Amino acid sequence: MYIRKFKTYSVLFLSLWLVGCSNLDDSHVKIDEESELIFSATLTDNLGDFKAVNVSGDEMWHFDSNGYAYVSGYVENANKANEAWLISPEIDLTAVETARLTFDHVVRYFANPATEATVWVSENFVDDQSPAVAAWTQLVTEPFTDPGSWTFGTSGEISLTAFAGKKIRIGFKYISTTAKAGSWELKNFLVRKGEAVVVERNWGKGTEAEPYTVAGAIANQTGENWVTGIIVGYVWSGSFTNYVFGSDTCTQATNILIADTVGTYLSKTMAIQLPAGAVRTGINLKDNKSLLGKRVTLAGSLEAYFGAPGMRSTSYYALENGTSGGTKPVKTIFSESFANNSQGAFTIQNVVIPSGVNYVWTTSPSYGMVASAFVGGSNKATESWLISPEISLADVSTVSMTFEHALNYLRGAKAADFVTVWLSTTYSSGAPSTAAWSQLSVPVYPPGTNWTFVGSGAVSLDDFAGEPKVRIAFKYVSTTATAATWEVKNVVIK
Amino acid sequence: MIKKIVPLFLLVSLVACNQVEFEPMDVSGLLGEKIDSTYSIARLKKVFITDESLFSANKISYAALDSATKSRIDTTITDIVINGIVTSTDVEGNVYKYLTIQEEMPGGQAIKLSVDVSGLSAMFPLGQRVSVVCNDLYIGQYAQSVQMGVFYMNSERNRIEPGRMPKLMARKHIIPYGMPDPSAIRPDTMTIAQIRTSGHEMINKLVVIKNAFFTGNGSSSQKRPVRLTDAELIFAPSTNGIGYPQSREIQDGTGSVFVSTSEYAKFATKPIPTSNHRGHITAIVGWYNDRDLSPVASSIYHQLTIRSLNDLGKGFEAYRQSLN
After folding, report:
1. Which chain A residue shows the shortest CA-CA distance from B218?
2. Where are the domains of chain A?
3. Which class would CATH give A335-493?
4. Which residues in B lie closer than 8 A to residue A248 (C-beta atoms)?
């Protein structure tokens, strides 16, 4: 016993003596056995022994000279479809009982990071093979959210304990589609001993039923959403730092500050713009000082306000006592502008197209998608469909579509005989005739004699509310007698 | 154990109650005498820091200077002496093995003295005036911040640094005189914007920032503010053995800067004040740039060191009370 103690104290003494004599940094270096490093790669100078491999697509993970690994399917102003993997070298966990992974990263512009930016482990991946051949287990991570800037954040600790005793490869799987291609930057990859400390986050979903918490809204500055928080103060002028946590002396009615808890930090609060009208009247602290400390649920656009994450264009509020005001927003389910020569994720199916006609639908710089069968100085008989990607109407009970369109050279014919809009719940690809289509009623058609865009009016999709997969089609038909030109842009489904 | 403690307690009590009947010793006799300055800290830096690397160590010796420099200075001044008052204290563990001394004159500067002694405040307490005989010490940059000590080759990181002088050397070169007088310390009142735009003449000086508050942000690896998790809203969480100080952003309406705290400070695990507490923050101005030969405008290299939670002054009374 005493010998053991002597040994312990000797080692302790020697350690202290060595530390005491060292001339290292001012910081006090201490080795914590529970957090010994197993593997690290900064990825700030190159990819090191990491492998970049694609299952599909051409856009691969690569080293960015700004000091991180990077992948994006958004290339030359277009979204490209990819499945790109960045795979670590073998990490030996055979001698440990617990392990955890952390890295710094930033995800931006994904349609859904939960499925498009994921982390996996394989015990049988072999270099020079496709990741598709190996068996992979997805790691449970904190939700990856778009922070609204390119500032790196930590992944949080991710447990690898399930793989203790094994040799593993860790893969970062990136998915992009022609509809949406996010960007992922990654560095400071660390695997250490010790059980992961997982931070539970219940940030909400940004919906009326499950609004974001303030922390969730700060992390998801992504347009129209709902948020709930406690009114803690206001910004009295100009800068976010000119804040007051209180209401007694408030003379400012144009904004409030909300937070998840009372008595908090400025970085944990969010400024809410109160536009003139019911919202400002209802919840400003200048006229409603007793609202300090009360919970409010708000709808508006999550975007920077006073140079910090905030909410602008607030359209609706509901207080904890049941008082509410303003107008509830209708959330955009789908939108496609067709701007800048973009076809978006729409596909074109030419059902009838005579020889010598190469296309009917085409992109344009500022007129959206354009359909015409006036080719080589004469009208051609055609039928061509412009078909949307899959759209989910699963979570809505009422829904409608609007778009803008212009029509010319109709020459007295009836527009609805030549340009129509359809919806299918069964179409997946190929010829439109392979699926059932329902024609939609378009309230407003252009006169057919000029290039003036008109709004379509609300095209009701209520009959299809609740459908998980629908596709919208713009059907253009021409004859040798009539071949109008139809321009379509700014398609929005709410 | 009780048997040992009780007599000890009685003995201490008796001693404590014993009336002193001898003449108090003239403690000034235990201390050294002031040596008049022959150099200001500013001039010391200007003459002897000849290497502008992020890390460097230059010998304070005329022999080490090139002939051009020597021709511009008075080399007949054989003793190179600076004076200052100690503004640092390590009693709370956030200052470790160094002193900062600050000149008591208008426009006076400050310097960090690197000494390989724990509990340095026992030798050089807050408010202690000292004369420093600089001959043959080394002065240089540590992460672009000036320190004085000894030559040190950091073989692990392959660089030369100003290292910690041993205790005996410190006794020889750093001479305390007079009784310590903390009330004589005069921090400069500055805004964060003024600190950020000041030159290196402010480094190691003691400042007071008014109307300052903690934002709840920390620092990214690019030395920019990043939001902290709830668990990180303390002065210095454990670094899991890596050992670097932790940054916490403060603002005063004019700008943003970091308060830097060691995980070994006694107050490391105390919550940082929430943003409803705004007031005076006294701190030693630091600078840490270990990688950017050309500083990046968006990075915040300034690091403020608070010596204890008492440096959170007027305006933070309720916060300090909440910790009790």
Report:
1. A267
2. 37-193, 214-326, 335-493
3. mainly beta
4. none
- Which residues are within 8 A (CB) of B318 and not within 5 positions of it... i.e. 6 or more apart? B277
- Looking at per-residue pLDDT, the higher value among A152 and B268 belongs to B268
* Chain A residue at shortest CA distance from B162: A23
B322 in contact with A at a CB cutoff of 8 Å?
no
Residue A210 CB-half CA count within 13 A = 6
B291 touches chain A (CB under 8 A): no
Tell me the residues of chain B between 159 and 198 that have a Cβ less than 8 Å away from chain A. Answer: 161, 163-164
Which pLDDT value is given to residue A75? 83
Could you give the count of Cα atoms lying within 13 Å of A365 in the half-sphere of its Cβ? 0
To which residue do tokens 């010790």 refer?
Answer: A194
A248 inside 8 A of chain B by CB: no
| Euclidean distance between CA atoms A55 and A60, whole angstroms | 10
**Average pLDDT score over chain A:** 89
Predicted local distance difference test score (pLDDT) of residue A288: 97
What is the least distance, in Å, from the CA of B64 to any CA of chain A?
23
State the best of A16, A22, A23 to mutate against chain B, taking most chain B CBs within 10 Å.
A23
SS (H, E, C) chain B: CHHHHHHHHHHHHHHHHCCCCCCCCCHHHHCCCCCCCCCCHHHHHHHHCCCCCCCCCEECCHHHCCHHHHHCCCCCCCCCEEEEEECCCCCCCCCCCEEEEECCCCCCCEEEEEECCCCHHHCCCCCCEEEEECCCCEEEEECCEEEEEEEEEECCCCEEEEECECHHHHHHHEEEECCCCHHHCCCEECCHHHHHHCCHHHCCCEEEEEEEEECCEEECCCCCEEECCHHHCECCCCCCCCCCCEEEEEECCCCEEEEEECCCCCCCCCECCCCCCCEEEEEEEEECCCCCCCCCCCCCCEEEECCCHHHECCCCHHHHHHCC
Tokens of A387: 């078909």
CATH number of A214-326: 2.40.50
Whole-angstrom Cα distance, residue B133 to residue B32? 13
B97, B156, B215: residue with CB nearest A266: B215
- Chain segment B8-37, per-residue pLDDT in tens: 444 444 444 444 455 655 555 557 899 999
Q: Which residue of B has its CA nearest to A30?
A: B241
Q: How far is CA B284 from the centre of its chain?
A: 6
A28·B262 Cβ contact <8 A: yes
* A142-188 confidence digits (pLDDT tens): 878 776 667 788 888 999 999 999 999 999 999 998 878 899 999 99
Q: Judge whether A29 is closer than 8 Å to chain B, CB to CB.
A: yes
B56 touches chain A (CB under 8 A): no
Question: How many C-beta atoms surround the C-beta of residue A43 within 10 A?
Answer: 24
Query: Measured between beta carbons, which residues in chain B are less than 8 angstroms from residue A104?
Result: 221
Q: Do A245 and B231 touch (CB under 8 A)?
A: no
ipTM associated with this complex: 0.71
Q: Return the closest-CA partner of residue A258 out of A326, A323, A201, A310.
A: A310
Fold match flag (A37-193 vs A214-326): no
Q: Any CB–CB contact under 8 A between B264 and chain A?
A: yes
Q: Which residues in chain A have their CB less than 8 angstroms from residue B268's CB?
A: none
Between chains, do B215 and A243 touch, taking CB under 8 Å as contact? no
Of the candidates B142, B233, B243, the beta carbon closest to that of A29 is on: B243
Q: Please give the backbone phi and psi of residue B148, each rounded to the nearest 5 degrees, phi first.
A: -120, 140
Domains of chain B: 30-184 (no CATH), 188-322 (2.40.50.140)
User: Is A37-193 assigned to CATH 3.40.50.300?
Assistant: no
Decide if A151 and B224 are in contact by the 8 Å CB cutoff: yes
Model confidence over A255-296: pLDDT tens digits? 999 999 988 899 899 999 999 999 999 999 999 999 999 999
